[in-house]
Design brief:
Keywords: Membrane, Transmembrane, Transmembrane helix. Residues 231-250 are annotated as: Disordered. The chain crosses the membrane at residues 64-89, 101-123, 135-156, 168-191, 278-297, 325-347, 367-387. The protein is mainly alpha-helical. The protein has one domain (1-398). Helix content is 61%, strand content 5%. A two-stranded antiparallel ribbon has the order 1-2. The chain has a two-stranded antiparallel ribbon with strand order 3-4. A two-stranded antiparallel sheet has the order 5-6. A hairpin with a 5-residue loop joins strand 3 (38-40) and strand 4. Helix 3 (67-93) runs parallel beside helix 5, helix 4 runs antiparallel to helix 5 and helix 4 (96-131) packs antiparallel against helix 12. The longest helix is centred in the C-terminal third of the chain and has 39 residues, at 370-408. The relative contact order is 0.15.
């Protein structure tokens, strides 16, 4: 009887802090064994890569890179950026009804993004670590970063009501959990394997082959990373020591390195520290920390001073104006930058995969499957409920105003 998938990915051992999945995946069955090899023919044509036996047999994952899921995530992230900017105008106009409606929509979108991101992370910790390709890993990374951007922007835009809702009891720990788990993965990749090789993050137009088709665990697990099958193994650059007195006509390596033609087909790897996602994560974490500091400073310093000096609302708005705008501009700028980068990156990756000829079918491009319809439908239902709630509040306000006018008569 096979054991249950383990959530434990990181271990302390004689090699330090390491990501080890090879043994855990083998225990789940043959279909979960991580394969990192590539096979070229005599002319440098890529015949097979990783678990994919030949072109046209690469397994798609609509739950990760499906057109419906990606489109709804991008739409949500862009909507949050626009609405967060719009709430600044509404606060100046003191439009409480519209502000309450947009705030509710921001909370709804942020909650859905958080749930989806947490599901991706848990899935990767269970069985995704064995099967997920580097291409799908990049898509998940972009999706989770979009969620982090949404969380930071929502927290800052809705700071006036964030802790007055009951949902903050769940929103805060879930947000911290997402940031912490993502930080562990990226920090391991960035600090432990800083200069180790990782597949390119954007294949050039016109090339159909890429190391992105290899399982991502080939570049996290130390044994798989250094294995003789891995085309980007650092051991491929290490020469074997020759026997005493033996003359060699050509260098002999621990693992035979790929030729330049093969690397041109597969794509030259990049070093981990050159991947931009870690820097985006750092900026988003800084954005969230700044938003928290801003809220604490606003509540305990600015508002208290204003109440103590009995300033008018107009005068109160002028206190610390430049500092507030600096904080706000930085938080908004970081979130918008992350949204733009992740959106462009996901669209480029999907376009490359769709035209590469490796996918076994077009399931990632089908709008009509249930998995692709659910995310936009959930967003539409949330919007409908918020519109209904907003309409009800408007009717109440109009009714209250009508009653007051009748009493005045």
């Amino acid at each position: 009887m096979k054991g249950l998938p383990s959530l434990s990915l990181f271990f302390w051992n004689q090699r330090g802090f390491s990501f080890e999945v090879e043994g855990a995946c083998k225990s789940l069955g043959k279909e979960y064994i991580v394969r990192c090899g590539v096979d070229f023919n005599g002319t440098g044509y890529l015949k097979s890569i990783g678990p994919t036996p030949r072109r046209g047999k690469f397994q798609p994952d609509p739950d990760v890179a499906g057109v419906g899921i990606i489109s709804s995530m991008i739409a949500q992230a862009i909507a949050v950026c626009l609405l967060a900017l719009w709430t600044l105008y509404l606060k100046k106009r003191n439009s409480k009804i519209w502000l309450e409606f947009f705030t509710g929509f921001l909370f709804s979108v942020s909650d859905m993004s958080s749930i989806l991101s947490l599901a991706y992370i848990i899935n990767f910790m269970l069985t995704g670590k064995c099967k997920m390709s580097t291409y799908h890993y990049y898509i998940v990374l972009d999706t989770v970063l979009l969620a982090c951007s949404t969380i930071a922007l929502t927290f800052h835009s809705c700071r006036h009501v964030f802790f007055s809702t009951r949902g903050w009891i769940l929103r805060v720990p879930v947000a911290l959990l997402i940031f912490c788990l993502l930080g562990i993965f990226l920090s391991y990749q960035f600090f432990v394997h800083t200069k180790n090789n990782f597949p390119e993050w954007v294949p050039p137009v016109g090339r159909n082959d890429s190391g992105l088709l290899l399982p991502v665990s080939c570049f996290f697990d130390i044994d798989l990373m250094n294995g003789k099958e891995n085309p980007f193994s650092p051991h491929r650059q290490i020469k074997k020591p020759g026997k005493p007195g033996e003359k060699k006509s050509k260098p002999v390596y621990v693992h035979e390195p790929l030729t330049e033609t093969q690397l041109d087909r597969l794509g030259h790897p990049i070093q981990n520290y050159k991947i931009p996602h870690f820097y985006l994560y750092g900026l988003l974490t800084l954005s969230l920390i700044l938003a928290i500091i801003f809220n604490i400073w606003q509540h305990f310093v600015v508002d208290r001073r204003a109440r103590a000096s009995k300033t008018t609302p107009k005068e109160r708005r002028g206190l610390g104006r430049y500092a507030r705008w600096a904080f706000r501009s930085l938080v908004y700028g970081i979130s918008i930058l992350c949204t733009i980068f992740c959106t462009v990156h996901m669209l480029k990756l999907r376009s490359w995969a769709e035209h590469s000829g490796w996918l076994i079918d077009e399931s990632e491009s089908r709008w009509y499957s249930l998995g692709q319809l659910l995310p936009p439908m959930a967003l539409g239902i949330s919007l409908f409920m918020l519109l209904d709630s907003w309409g009800e509040k408007r009717r109440r306000v109009k009714g209250a105003g009508l009653n007051l006018s009748q009493k005045g008569e």
